[in-house]
Specification:
globular, 7 strands, two-stranded antiparallel ribbon, Rossmann fold
Length: 291
């Protein structure tokens, strides 16, 4: 049975270089397959999928302990996508990890597909929660993390949420509960792309300084460039290695449309339409920036 086990820590510099190269290749495939899926519909949450690809590549190609052919294995690490509309990237990551067939990505958001536009646990192997109703993911992650601790299960729970989601009061209620219960097996990953449906997150309702707020709630925090693969690896490993019982938060500063320059430059990035003659350009630019 196939199983990916997290590597011994701390890694040597040579080992880290090898791992980062592997992650870089995985990130390219996640972005490429996000574009492949989006092209099926001609539109979607493409900018977000491209921006979170590096975080997901680090998790699914390097950090998570899982069994691709047994996605409900009790000993697995749980990766919860609170922001269900980022499903394009999650499905690509699950294909990269071998949980779902890569060919199935061509059915994205089609009738009778297991890959709905917003990720749902009842449809897709490897999807832990039905996200998309923003502000609920961290609460669910709390329950899972607390249950695992009470069972004596050493698995780690990762909850990916957005900077816009920090405007939901329930997120901060969950932050307080996690600290109260000492959920040191929980890592919240904030995708800080400074964009939501109505504009820049920092303009609509700024939550800066985000790190200081989580620290005030009793969390251990690291903030990194969300496209610095080595930095992401080190941050995850530092957070897991901390000796205290604080929940952990990793804030990843990302760029919408990352890897495809003409999409990065678009003004309207939350839900994006791409013209039929632009897909080849998107793939060509992705190959150039990933070389």
């Amino acid at each position: 049975m196939t199983e990916r086990t997290t590597l011994a820590r701390p890694a040597t510099d040579d080992d880290l270089d090898t791992r980062v190269q592997h992650i870089k290749e995985a990130a390219f495939r996640i972005r490429r397959n996000a574009l492949v899926q989006a092209e099926v519909q001609g539109q979607g949450y493409i900018g977000q999928a491209l921006d979170v690809a590096d975080v997901l590549a680090v998790l699914y190609a390097d950090q998570l302990n899982l069994r691709p052919d047994d996605p409900e294995w009790e000993g697995r690490d749980r990766c919860l996508l609170s922001i269900g509309h980022y499903a394009l990237a999650l499905y690509a990551a699950l294909a990269e990890a071998g949980v779902i067939p890569e060919a199935e990505l061509q059915t994205y958001a089609c009738d009778d597909s297991r890959l709905p536009m917003s990720a749902m646990a009842s449809y897709t192997p490897g999807v832990e929660i039905s996200g998309g109703s923003l502000g609920h993911g961290l609460t669910i992650a709390n329950g899972i993390a607390l249950g695992l601790k009470r069972k004596g299960n050493p698995a780690t729970v990762y909850n990916i949420l957005s900077d816009g989601e920090l405007g939901e009061g329930s997120t901060w209620e969950a932050a307080a509960v996690a600290a109260h219960h000492g959920l040191d097996n929980l890592i919240a990953v904030v995708d800080f792309n400074d964009q939501q449906a109505d504009g820049k997150s920092t303009s609509v309702l700024s939550m800066e300084p985000v790190g200081a707020k989580f620290e005030a709630f009793g969390w251990a925090v690291r903030r990194v460039d969300g496209h610095d693969l080595a930095g992401l690896v080190r941050a995850f490993e530092e957070l897991r290695a901390l000796p205290d019982d604080r929940p952990r938060c990793l804030i990843a500063d990302t760029t919408l449309g990352k890897g495809v320059p003409f999409l990065e430059a678009r003004e309207k990035l939350h839900f994006m339409q791409v013209a039929a003659d632009e897909w080849a350009k998107a793939h060509d630019q992705l190959k150039e920036t990933s070389a």
